[in-house]
Amino acid sequence: xxxxxxxxxAKPVWLWLLFLTIVITLMVFDLGVLHRDNHELGVAESLKxxxxxxxxxxLFGGYIWWAWSNGTLVTSxxxxxxxxYFQGYIIEKVLSIDNVFVISLIFGYFAIPRKYxxxxxxxxxxxxxxxxxxxxxxxxxxxxxxxxxxxxxxxxLAFTGIKMLVVPEGDMDVSxxxxxxxxxxxxxxxxxxxxxxxxxxxxxxxxxxxxxxxxPLLVALIVINVADLIFAVDSVPAIFLITTDTFIVYTANIMxxxxxxALYFALAALVHRFHYLKYALAVVLIFIGLKxxxxxxxxxxxxxxxxxxxxxxxxxxxFYSLWKTRDGGDGHDSGQDRAEVKPAE
Length: 345
Hints:
The protein has 345 residues and is mostly helical. It contains ten helices and four strands. The chain has helices at 13-34, 43-69, 81-109, 114-145, 149-166, 178-186, 216-240, 246-270, 277-298, 303-324, and strands at 7-8, 11-12, 199-203, 210-214. Strand 3 and strand 4 (210-214) form a beta hairpin. The model is unreliable at 333-345 (pLDDT under 50).
């Protein structure tokens, strides 16, 4: 059992295994117990399940606080892991709202029934765990070897935030997505769904021999995971500017993503009520980017002050959005009408 106390990315192996055990247990419970009958997930059930995942994330944050306070957990860069974890979690959660809109469009394009959407999203977590892990490991290695990379991240986040404030959103055409085009050209894909199956065996129309075909559910899952990878280009640099400790970066990301799958069905129906939240998020990204420059040249920014500013900006965006859309409108005349975007029936 000595290998459990070996270090991996500056943390003991047992700590990584503990977190992965929590994630795997949640996925098995989710798929094998809560949703083995593939029933449609309503808004009320979505909110209840989301509350459960948020509770788990807070509990894990409590463990980080306990381990840090007694000296068991020490961050590799000396940052406060509690403030870093919760700030990263909140930013990732809010960044995911736009991701929900894109996922809804993808499901609608492939005509995926709601009763299969949740299972596809949960299976997608497996891909996210691997892809985010690779991205975070690369980011940590780059920062470790070249400290100036944090300035690149800071400039990128500030630019992204400014772009979100001044550039209007464009329409997304799933049919022209390069991933959809590539899969259609290089894989045999059935024209119709086959329940919750990702692959089926069917006779080849030309030879009559049985061949393995992908279903539209698999294609939708691939496109969603690629979309998540693109969204990670924003979220991963953001949390690296909060802390470069790989364990905190990874756990905050994954905890937020686990809850997103449950929250999807509520957000897809209510996303129009959060129209102005994107502007608050843009301000947060600019703030994190500027804080990255400050920390590089002048020293660490107070972690609890940073967390308080982030929470304050996001809360202001949420309350302002809810107030502006209290009569059912989206409070905005141009761009996409997000109120009409719903999960495919």
